[in-house]
Amino acid sequence: MRKKVFSVLVSNTSGVLNRVAALFSRRGYNIDSLTVGVTENPEYSRMTIVAKGDDDVLEQIEKQISKLEDVIDITELGPDDSVCRELILVKVAVSVEQRQQVIAIADIFRAKIVDASQDSLMVELTGNQSKLDAFIELLEGYKIEQLVRTGITGLLRGKVN
């Protein structure tokens, strides 16, 4: 099973997200990650969809998405020709003794402390999935109170055609 990241340019109209999600649901495909946001042109939104499957399933997903009425363009974001990122926020319970240790781990990953209270720190980190996974792994010795991930978003490298 492989993973594919699709960048899908769609009309910025109501119901587009529902139609894309319904396509996956009808076919029994799973969406690993989905992010959507308006582009530089407010008439369009860009969806970044991550799906796993064998080559036939992934090819079928791409073909079915491209057939949807609101889809302008679909592009695969390969690891060599694109930049993909994800954002996480992690709230870590810390004692006075642990505070500096968690800050040091955050510094190693160039993460930001975005909130601090007497007994917790909230850390923001942006990067590729392996960087985020490594960061979370280093925090396993601490109590993670809450964690949220945005899902992958990305663009092709180089000049836009």
Element-level helix/strand string: EHEEHEEHEEHEE
Count of domains: 2
CATH superfamily descriptor of the largest domain? ACT domain
Uncertain parts: none
The overall pLDDT average reads: 95
Protein architecture, described:
With 161 residues, this protein is of the alpha+beta class. It folds into two domains: 2-76, ACT domain (Alpha-Beta Plaits, 2-Layer Sandwich); 82-155, ACT-like. Chain A, domain 2 (Alpha-Beta Plaits, 2-Layer Sandwich). Helices cover 30% and strands 42% of the residues. It has four helices and nine strands. It has helices at residues 16-27, 55-67, 96-108, 129-138; strands spanning 2-11, 33-38, 44-53, 71-76, 82-93, 112-116, 120-127, 143-149, 153-156. The strands form two sheets. Strands 5, 6, 7, 8 and 9 form a five-stranded antiparallel β-sheet that branches. It has a four-stranded antiparallel β-sheet with strand order 2-3-1-4, covered by helices on one side. It starts with a strand and ends in a 5-residue tail after the last strand.
